[in-house]
Amino acid sequence: MPDAAIDGPPGAAGNVRRESAWHIITADYRRHGSAVTNGAFVSLCIYRFGHWGLHRRSPITRGLASKFYGLMNFFVANITKIWIPPRVTIGRDFHIVNNEGSLSIHPDVVIGDRLGVMHNVTIGTNMRPGAPLIGNDVFIGTNSTVLGAIRVGDRVRIAANCAVTTDVPSDSVVVGSPARIYPRLGPFR
Q1: Chain-centre distance of CA 56, in angstroms?
Q2: Angstrom distance (rounded) from CA 172 to CA 157
């Protein structure tokens, strides 16, 4: 299973400990309403299998896992409208708050711990190389886009209907399109 527990900034070398696949899947299950039929939970299971298969040493195992992932993802992604490629790096406690619409994440995106994301969100490129790096304890509201080789700091709240194309410092609130960045006015919890 993926390197789900990250102690430090996303992708920091040497700060990774592995959690069991069972622990990760049950945590996803609880976080997404304890329902096997929840589209967000099913999509995350498919992503986790694809991510696991991508990191197999044996080319045969990697190839078989890739084919199985592709087949499963073809059906699940077209039903749930949630596209999370196996190359995406996701930290702990990723939560798709509402899967009533689509969610699309670019393969090169790196997501920290505890990202909450609503429906109709795109996290990807801006027709140029580079994808977003999202910190810990971030929330992205409905109909928002986070595009380009940008860095979103820790404890950031991105409101609904935002188009974020610039770096966002930690402890900020982002509103509007184009995005306006404001410092937090009180403690986030």
Answers
A1: 21
A2: 7
In whole angstroms, give the CA distance from residue 28 to residue 46.
12
Could you give the CA distance from residue 174 to residue 140 in angstroms, rounded to a whole number?
9
Q: What is the pTM of this model?
A: 0.83
- The sign one gets for the Cα dihedral 146, 84, 75, 62 is positive
Q: What is the per-residue pLDDT across 77-94, written as a single tens digit (0 to 9) for each? A: 999 999 999 999 999 999
Q: What is the 3-state secondary structure (H, E, C) of the chain?
A: CCCCEECCCCCCCCCEECCCHHHHHHHHHHHCCCCCCCHHHHHHHHHHHHHHHHCCCCHHHHHHHHHHHHHHHHHHHHHHCEECCCCCEECCCCEECCCCCCEEECCCCEECCCEEECCCEEEECCCCCCCCEECCCEEECCCCEEECCCEECCCCEECCCCEECCCECCCEEEECCCCEEEECCCCCC
Rounded Cα distance between 96 and 41, Å, is 8
| Segment 29-66, tens digit of pLDDT | 888 888 888 888 999 999 999 999 999 999 999 999 99
Alpha-carbon span 109 to 119, nearest angstrom: 18
